[in-house]
Structure formats: C-alpha cells, structure tokens
C-alpha cells in the first residue's frame, strides 16, 4: 500500500493500491502526453485557420472548422488526463487496463474531416471548371 506520507496528487490515483512497475507507469504518462500534444496540434491548427480566414476571401466554413478543431483539441486534452488517471489507477490496483474510449471518436473525426476536405476540394474544382 502507498505510504501515508505520500503527498502526490490526485489522491484518487496515488492514494490507492500499490506502486506499479515504473515502466508501465511511464508508458502511461507518455501516452497521455502524446494525446495532449495531439490536442495542442488541433488547437494550433484551429488558430492557423482562423488567422488565415482574416487574410483572404475564405468561406465561413473555414472558421467553423477552426472552432471545431480548437474545441476538439481542448476536449482531447481533458480526455488525456482522465484516461491517464483511469489507467494509472488500474495499474496500481492490478486491474485490467481500461479501453481507449475516445479512439473510435478520433478516427471518426479524422475520416469525417478527410471526406469533408475531399468534398470541398471537388466542389471548388467543379466551380473553377465552369
């Protein structure tokens, strides 16, 4: 069990179970940091799109995509923290690792964004050909 003098936070994670293997705990932390980095990239992409929309005659949909990217990035950061805590707690309690619940949503978002961009590019190409 964890020593009562352990001052690490959050207590809901560090206050239960036994210390996990260092490698497993660090792998969990690296995974969370990767998700946070992905979220920050989405936010940066949203900022870039919003900035670009001010320079030219870009459609309103670009601002909508920028906002969705920024919101998605923030949500991904929150999810990374929650997933880290769930996994770390499971490691400490010697329970099965929880499933990556957000991964199907991220894949669906990537597919939807790809289809949207492809459709938008096709529409623009048709408009230019006229």
Polypeptide structure, described:
The chain has helices spanning 11-14, 22-53, 60-93, 103-129. It has 4 helices and no strands. With 130 residues, it is mostly helical. The protein is 75% helix and 0% strand. The longest helix has 34 residues, at 60-93. The chain has one domain (20-129).
Question: Layout of SSEs?
Answer:
Elements: H1 11-14, H2 22-53, H3 60-93, H4 103-129
Helix pairs in contact: 2-3
Characteristic key phrases:
about 130 residues; mainly alpha; 4 helices
Could you tell me how far the N terminus lies from the C terminus, measured between alpha carbons in angstroms?
A: 72 Å
Q: How many helix segments? A: 4
The fraction of residues assigned to DSSP E strands is: under 5%
Please state the overall shape, judged from the principal axes of the Cα atoms.
Answer: elongated
Number of beta strands: 0
Total domain modules: 1
Q: Note poorly predicted spans.
A: none
Instruction: Tell me the major beta sheet.
Output: none
On the 0 to 100 scale, the average pLDDT is 89
N-to-C order of helices and strands: HHHH
Radius of gyration (CA) equals: 21 Å
Structural class: mainly alpha
Helical coverage, percent range: over 70%
């Amino acid at each position: 069990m964890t020593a009562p003098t352990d001052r690490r936070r959050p207590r809901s994670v560090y206050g239960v179970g036994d210390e996990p293997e260092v490698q497993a705990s660090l792998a969990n932390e690296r995974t969370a940091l990767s998700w946070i980095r992905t979220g920050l990239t989405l936010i940066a992409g949203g900022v870039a799109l919003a900035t670009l929309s001010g320079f030219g005659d870009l459609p309103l949909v670009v601002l909508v995509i920028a906002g969705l990217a920024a919101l998605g990035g923030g949500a991904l950061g929150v999810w990374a923290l929650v997933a880290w805590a769930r996994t770390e707690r499971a490691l400490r309690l010697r329970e099965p690792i929880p499933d990556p619940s957000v991964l199907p949503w991220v894949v669906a978002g990537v597919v939807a964004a790809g289809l949207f961009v492809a459709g938008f590019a096709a529409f623009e190409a048709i408009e230019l050909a006229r």
